[in-house]
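Here is one chain, start to finish.
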Amino acid sequence: MTEERPDERPSTTAAFGAAAQRSGLGTVRPGETPTAGALLAAVGGVRGLVESILPGLAFLVAYTVTGELLPSVLIPLGVGVVFVVVRLVQRSAVIPAVAGLLGIGVSAALALLTGDVNDNFVPGLLTNIAFLLVAIISVVARRPMIGIIVGLLAQDPHWRADAAKLRVASVATWVWAGLFAARLAVQGPLYLAGATSALAATKLLMGVPLYAGVLWVIWLLIRSAWGRGAAGSTPA
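Its structure:
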C-alpha cells in the first residue's frame, strides 16, 4: 500500500471551493455576462425548479381543498419521495432530492407533533433567521459571505486586499441578507396570525422566484469588481 503524501491530500481551501462550486452561486463566473440559462442552472435547472416548487404547491392545494393537517403535510412528503425514487431509477444525483425530502419530513413531523399546521413553516423561518445572522455577522467581521464564496470560485485568495472587491462583496452580502429579511418580514406576521394559505402562497412566491432575482443582482455586482481583471485593469 502506498503512503499518501501530504501534498496529495485535498486542502481545506479546495474542499470549501468544491462546496462553493456546488452551491447556487457556483454558476457565478467573474467577468461573464449573466445569461438566463446560467441563472436557470443556478436555481437547479428545470428539475431543480420543479423539485423546489411542487411540494409547496402541493401543500397549498391540499390545505385549500381539505383544510386538514394530515393530507396537507403528507401529500408534499409523498411528492418528495417520488422525486427521490425518480432520481434513483434514472441513476442521477440523488442528494438534492434527499435533502429536500429531509426538509419536508422535518417540517411535517413538527406540524404533526404539535397538531398545528402552521408549524410546518417553522423550520423554514428558522433557516431564514440563521442565514440572515450569518450574512450580517460576516459583513461586520469584514469577511462578507458572498466575497468568500466568489473568492473560492475565482481562485482569488487575496480579494480582501482589493478595496473595490471588499466593498462590492459587502454590498452583495447585504443584498443576500435582504432576501432573508424580506421573507421574515412578510412570513413572520402571517405565521403569528395563523394565515396558513397566505403563508404557503407567499413562501412559494418568495422562494425560487425571489432567490433568482436576488442572485441576478448579486451576479451583476460581482461582475463590476471581479470582472475588471478580464478588462486588464487588475491582474487575472
